[in-house]
Amino acid sequence: MTQRYELSDLIRTDNFIDGKWMPAASGKRFAVTDPATGEVIARVADSGPADARAATDAAARAFPAWRDTLPKDRAAVLHRWHASIVENADALGRLISLEQGKPFAEGRGEVMYGASYVKWFADEATRIYGDIIPQQQRGKRMSAVKEPVGIVAAITPWNFPLAMIARKIAPALAAGCTVIGKPAEDTPLTALALVMLANDACVPAGALNLISASRDNAQEAVADWLEDGRVRKITFTGSTPVGKYLARESAGTLKKVSLELGGNAPFIVFDDADLDAAVAGLMASKFRNGGQTCVCPNRVYVQSSIYDRFADLLAKRVCALKVAPATDLDAQIGPMINARAVEKIERHVNDAVKRGARVLTGGKRRSELGANYYAPTVLADATPDMQLSCEETFGPVVPLFRFDDEAEAIHAANNTPFGLASYFYSQDLRRIDRVSRLLEAGLVGINEGAISSEAAPFGGVKESGYGREGSKYGLDDYLSIKYLCQGGLE
């Protein structure tokens, strides 16, 4: 039977290494703050290379036994972990809201989304199949089997502090790998709580280890993992510059690397679209977590003949969004994660207005609520020379671009080094087939704004990274294929 915890019970401030909670070797700590108020929630371990090495040592000791654990027994552990997450969904949702700022409904939704990956990979643990290769020579039998790659280092961002680490840890454990992890410095508490529940579910000591580190120490701590040949895989979600650094520094030991990086998602509305559905889809995809998602639309292209109607419908919906802290149960947009995020949003909006954009709604800070709030914004007459056209804003800002024909829209959508998500609305079946093939993105939403699912492969192309999370493909990057050739059979 799973145990239900209160929010205060879930707040852990030490590293979790080899099944034990322990402070950083240096004794240092750093503050985790509430983005809604700036108040300190807790002071957590500020780890360095010694802590990273201790986590690797524990994972290395635990790997042989976990690798050899029967798949059905690994699955049972993950199912217990899933049950514990679901049982504590409300408390975890409040913790996410507290340290990340998203409204409680979204925080709880993230808990259930993350839990769905744990359940999915619990089931997939028993479906890791190999192949018998058709006989090529008499007296020889050939086969291919899949084995866990080894120790996996998981590094995750602040915007989905539970879901991002759950969808990395779950497939790694399901495959028989052991895990060392580091959550973002802005939101370590949720990840530490998740590990606490995994410990309750009897994940063996050393199979799952987590350290926290401040912005000042994180690179040095992770560098130990990059240099250690025992760490066989890096899985990272975050910015493209950091992803490139991790790929480059992993090359010395030829680690497997999975990278889910930045995006610049286009959202195309053709003149044959259902405009009400398109507005609803854009609202769902853009304003989740206040626009702080890697798959939210960053550039919205609307065909000229419907541009004004669409802009009017959208501005009315956006203007009605309630901006408030997560403690307000009616909140739809919470605070941004920190002051740097608000400054970037403000810089993008000011640059766009300077270059000719019109503010249809928003376009300013909500300082009366606190330092990290920005009003949901719609900008008309956006152009390619604006900063928000080529940089990911990561905030509640919708720039509307005009286009005349399909070829122009496709060119504009693909005219970016990124290729994570893309969306388009059309009711023309032939156009749907054409556009879905031509868009250069790992994820394509067709008349749909909410596209993420544990059953679907998630990942990008171009500079948005490589590797896939979720779905039946989600175990592949945690497995190696071994070829077996047995001779002398005649």
Automatic annotation (TrEMBL):
Keywords: Oxidoreductase. The active site is at residue 260. It comes from the Bacteria. One of its GO terms (molecular function) is succinate-semialdehyde dehydrogenase (NAD+) activity. Its EC number is 1.2.1.16. One of its GO terms (biological process) is gamma-aminobutyric acid catabolic process. The keyword Nucleotide-binding does not apply. InterPro entries: Ald_DH/histidinol_DH, Ald_DH_C, Ald_DH_CS_CYS, Ald_DH_CS_GLU, Ald_DH_N, Aldehyde_DH_dom, Aldehyde_DH_Superfamily. Residues 21-483 form the Aldehyde dehydrogenase domain. It is an enzyme of class 1 (oxidoreductase). PROSITE patterns: ALDEHYDE_DEHYDR_CYS (PS00070), ALDEHYDE_DEHYDR_GLU (PS00687). Belongs to the aldehyde dehydrogenase family. PANTHER family: SUCCINATE-SEMIALDEHYDE DEHYDROGENASE, MITOCHONDRIAL. This is Succinate-semialdehyde dehydrogenase I, NADP-dependent. It comes from Paraburkholderia piptadeniae. The gene is gabD.
